[in-house]
Amino acid sequence: MSSASWDSQDLLLILDDQHSTLAEFSAQIVPANLHYSASSDPDASLLAAATIMIGAPDKIVGYLSDAPALKWVQSTWAGVTPLINHPRRDYQLTGLKGVFGQVMSEYVLGWILALEREILAYAQDTSWNQRAPVTVLGKRLGIMGTGDIACDVALAAKALGLRVTGFNRSGHCPPAFESCYTYEHRIDFAQDLDYLLCIMPNTPETDGLVSVELLQALAPNAILLNTGRGNCVDEDAVLWALDSGHLRAAVLDVFNEEPLPSSHRFWSHPKVYVTSHTSAPTNIEAAVRVFAQNLERFLKNQPLLHVVDFAKGY
């Protein structure tokens, strides 16, 4: 579709309560020549006039069919699956980039160090106990996905001496990675990895990429982390790998069904760490800074940044 362009009748709808952090920060960057309103439950007249929306995809999707004038949606999430799954395509959707790398790096490396250095085990000791020394230096981390978040994690991991390999659709290798593999060579990618991190979008191509075959290719006692989307991981395959002893641990933040049902075996498995989709929460102030960059471009009728390709799903 053509680029979204500004006119004097445009209305920005901030899809959140008027006293929310999102509304307050957004109001600070809206220029005087742009009308705006904030509401967590907009009425029909507001939706009919709205040409720009900012908010969480799971909230916006419920109003897409009621906003006929919509030109542009700015997501406050890294993922946009609810909007991708909606049939409407006659607007520009922009994702949130450059916001999550720091917090994701903290999460991933925090867990790798906690498990590798047995920090959690030491914390539960009730008597003096010195285990054999272990380090992550020289060990291999494979990251499924090489977008901006993955690149930040890769750079942070390299600073600790990890060797980092990437995995993506094209095989293009960003500088943060030693090498990269395509989907067709996913078993070669997984071969002898000490740690496997999934930061993949939810698309048909990524369904079940982490399979029994792929897990078998990892080094013995490998650690799996999934912080992308639940569809990437075959949950039965993970349980098999844990029960067979091939995987040492699985740190799982995202799932096919969320919230994860209380009856799910992951909750009680001694080698599984469930973190309830908290690996990289949105920093609203940072999200609004990204929105402000795009809003300036929109008002100048310039191409927007981070436009989502509906066909690819990201």
From TrEMBL:
Keywords: NAD, Oxidoreductase. GO terms for molecular function: NAD binding; oxidoreductase activity. Gene3D superfamilies: NAD(P)-binding Rossmann-like Domain. InterPro entries: D-isomer_DH_NAD-bd, NAD(P)-bd_dom_sf. It comes from the Bacteria. Residues 113-278 form the D-isomer specific 2-hydroxyacid dehydrogenase NAD-binding domain. It holds the Pfam family 2-Hacid_dh_C. Transmembrane segments: none annotated. This is D-3-phosphoglycerate dehydrogenase.
